[in-house]
């Protein structure tokens, strides 16, 4: 594995990354592995083999990586993942809540209770329940951090058909600040990364090539982001050595797409 992140900053630390089977979460899991962490990578809905999900890892890196899968939109999803976490890592220093998606572009008049439940269960409820359930483990850590994944759409409202997804991300951004305030006395920092338009399966699914090309032109840095562009922000927010005085913040990673 080639990685721009080469250090032992996270050596001995235990990290859970959700939605790490592809896209941003996969790049984040790889960055934690490259910096020495033990990682439980939740790869998404379907169980994946180690070589299939993270091909070509060196043996030393491989033995620091465990994989698991479960539906985080399901009522029992967070509990299942937390049980696996206790069995595999036995404790936790960093929780990265990253699993999420739009679950379709649904026009405002077509939004119904079922769509509301699907979008909010995955993008908001799973973050709430995983964070709450991880707290007993995080309280044992001298380097505890939660890093959530929100979205530029939490502030802009997103593009048509994404109203519930965008609102769910805004929920998580506010939940981030609330938990940060509440957990600061326990030494647990809570922050979020807010990606702009990052080229992953998310946009291959929900945006046309024409829309993406127009977006790239409108971005001050004149390109779409990559998962690797996001990974450094997660490492920064997870490491007390780098961001020990940062909590309750949302770090925007968007090439200048939104400045305010
Ligand atoms: N790409 C962007 O431009 C962008 C912008 C702002 C925010 N974000 C956010 O960044 C995060 C990662 O997105 P991405 O672009 O990397 O998307 P992605 O490539 O589609 O990856 C999404 C990940 O979430 C997992 N996931 C989806 N539904 C799930 C469920 N019901 N239960 C468990 N896991 C589930 C997926 O697993 P499967 O492989 O099984 O589907 C996958 O691992 C998401 O929270 C997304 O909302 C992305």
Automatic annotation (TrEMBL):
CDD domains: SDR_c. Transmembrane segments: none annotated. InterPro entries: KR_dom (IPR057326), NAD(P)-bd_dom_sf (IPR036291), SDR_fam (IPR002347). The keyword Oxidoreductase applies. GO terms for molecular function: oxidoreductase activity. SMART domains: PKS_KR. Keywords: Oxidoreductase. Residues 13-196 form the Ketoreductase domain. Belongs to the short-chain dehydrogenases/reductases (SDR) family. This is Ketoreductase domain-containing protein. It comes from Tistlia consotensis USBA 355.
């Amino acid at each position: 594995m080639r990685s721009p992140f080469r250090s032992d900053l996270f050596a001995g630390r235990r990290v859970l990354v959700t939605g790490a089977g592809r896209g941003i979460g996969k790049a984040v899991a790889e960055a934690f592995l490259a910096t020495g962490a033990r990682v439980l990578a939740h790869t998404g809905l379907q169980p994946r083999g180690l070589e299939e999900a993270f091909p070509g890892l060196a043996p030393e890196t491989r033995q620091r990586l465990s994989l698991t899968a479960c539906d985080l939109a399901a009522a029992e999803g967070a509990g299942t993942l937390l049980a696996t976490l206790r069995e595999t890592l036995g404790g936790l220093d960093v929780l990265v809540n990253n699993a999420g998606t739009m679950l379709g572009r649904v026009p405002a008049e077509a939004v119904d209770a079922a769509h509301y439940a699907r979008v909010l269960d995955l993008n908001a409820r799973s973050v709430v329940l995983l964070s709450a359930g991880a707290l007993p483990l995080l309280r044992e850590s001298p380097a505890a951090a939660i890093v959530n994944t929100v979205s530029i759409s939490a502030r802009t409202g997103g593009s048509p058909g994404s109203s519930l997804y965008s609102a769910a991300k805004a929920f998580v951004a506010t939940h981030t600040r609330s938990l940060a305030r509440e957990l600061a006395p326990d030494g647990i920092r809570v922050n979020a990364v807010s990606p702009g338009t990052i080229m992953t399966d998310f946009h291959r699914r929900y945006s046309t090539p024409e829309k993406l090309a127009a977006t790239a032109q409108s971005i001050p840095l004149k390109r779409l982001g990559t998962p690797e562009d996001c990974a450094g922000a997660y490492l920064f927010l997870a490491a007390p050595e780098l961001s020990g005085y940062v909590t309750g913040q949302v770090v925007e990673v968007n090439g200048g797409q939104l400045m305010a």
